[in-house]
Amino acid sequence: MLLVLSDEYREHLVFLPKVEPAVVVEFGRIAVEFLKRGINPKIYEGAARKLNFPMETVQHGVEGLMFLLTESSKLMISELDFQDSVLVLGFSKELNQVLLQLYVDNRKEIRSILTQLAPCLPSYHNLEWRLDVQLARRSLRQQVVPMVTMRLLLATDGGNNTSRVLQTDPSTLLHLIATLETALAAMKTNHARRILRNIK
Amino acid sequence: MELSESVQKGLQSLADPSLFDLKSFAVLIDVAFRSLLSAHPGPSLLDQPELKSIDQILLKQCHAAATTYILEGVKQNADKSIISSCLEDVTFNVERIEIFYNSYQKYKEELEGFLASIGRSPPHINDVSWRLEYHMKNGHVHKVNEPCYLLSLNVENGGMGGSSEDINFSCTVEQLQDLVGKMKDAAKSLEKATQM
Description:
The complex is a heterodimer of chains A (200) and B (196). With 200 residues, chain A is α+β, with helices and mostly antiparallel strands. Chain A has helices at 7-12, 21-37, 41-51, 55-75, 79-87, 93-115, 170-186, 190-198; strands spanning 123-134, 145-155, 161-168. Chain A has eight helices and three strands. Chain A is elongated. With 196 residues, chain B is an alpha+beta fold. Chain B has a three-stranded antiparallel sheet. The interface between A and B is large, with 57 and 56 residues.
């Protein structure tokens, strides 16, 4: 699948062939750095001064490279498709190689950064459990009631962990285990296996 | 069992044959037990024909004393000897002790269940529902192609009539295996504990 690059986009990258490949490599590195850590405008100023280009051009160039990398990583296009897409920009062969290398080296990491943007429910982190026997309470003495107390740790967006303290009795615990085992067994059915195998 | 003064006074009145003959005593004791267990106790419960001739204020005091004593007894899991000695101290005769103890035995288990349900505790898990999904793509990343489980724990707060809540979370296949493994460890240790 080829990337569709708009005309405006091509305009932004038009100055790349005019500079040395080493500079393009540097821009590529800055683009990856910005993707990992966020944009730092001071770097644009420094680069613009060094290269004697207006700051806007430098900014467009770096942002163009960032877009190229994120779109390619999002769609997980093959190396061949990437090369064909970049061909459209009319860069030299050397430049294309540089960009391809940049893509291949960083795509895994960029994908994991993009995954953090996707909507996500709190996800399971850990379960701690404890077996208790309730002996008395304010309203009733001389009890013998077995209880399983559990702490469920969930990881939500933004890396915060929430923990919930929950309780259950032995028969419910066995019911939970049986239900979740049928859930795990659902993964092993022919139907699930067929889908997992064929949709790749 | 330690009883407050008002409860002792009420019980002493109950023991007095000049205030309560045997029949009205039996009726009041039965009413006391049933009023503790009924879902909507109302004043009509005390409107028994046998109790009409008794002074209403005295009736209320004795009813309150009886119910307090009953709850205290069930709470402490009192047996026949404790109840007998306690009622003897408030001048109950053997017949009345017998009537009281019969009703006590009859209703004790239900009252225990009722008392056990009062009070706070951590939210109690009742059920779990699950859903298996195959995550293909989302707005930010395509070609994800991973299976994923969505679990929903149905949890109840407090005792009777507590609100129920759903805790929703997702997990991968490995995480679900981890969760089930830990629950099985808990169940195994429960089994070992019962064999001790």
